[in-house]
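Thread: Newbie trying to understand structure tokens

Hi all, I'm a second-year student working on a class project, and my supervisor (Dr. K.) asked me to get a predicted structure for one chain before our next meeting. I've only ever worked with sequences, so writing a 3D structure as a token string is new to me. If someone could post the tokens and maybe explain what I'm looking at, I'd be very grateful. Here's the chain:
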Amino acid sequence: MYHAVVRNKLLATFKSLNEKDYEPILNSLAPSFEHFFSGTHALGGTRYTMKATRHWYERLRRVLPDLHFTVDHVTVSGWPWATTAFVEWRDKGQSLDGHAFNNQGVHVIRLRWGKVISVRIFCDTVVLADCLQRNGTHGAPEALEPPIDERVG
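---
Reply by user tm_fold:
Sure, no problem. This is what the structure looks like when written as tokens:
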């Protein structure tokens, strides 16, 4: 039963992503968390604070305004105090110059007592970097900015 609840919550989270409503995602984060996206592009880096993570989701809305996810598979394991979930997804959209893009990836999410303590996002960063480059040169200059990264060093 618990795994089904987590699975449904994650599906609702991706529905919120598609609606550009990031508050449910931010509200699901524990007081201490890690939000990681692989790569050195505008969406890459690691965030540990609500301020930086909110900024990241606002940037996501601006640099990939046509992004839409389809969830292919959700796997949940563990107990309420140590839960791990894998969300396999595909995304699609159109860059600001009209070029269609498609990507696929996985979110690895760790939860403790229903709160997210870690989100690690992996996808084909070559596809993403191309789309960000296109959008950066066609009206979304923030797509070319460095990652929002709170790692020390």
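A couple of things are worth pointing out once you decode it. The domain at 2-144 is CATH 3.10.450.50 (Nuclear Transport Factor 2; Chain: A,). The helical segments are 2-18, 23-27, 50-63, 125-137. Feel free to ask follow-ups in this thread.
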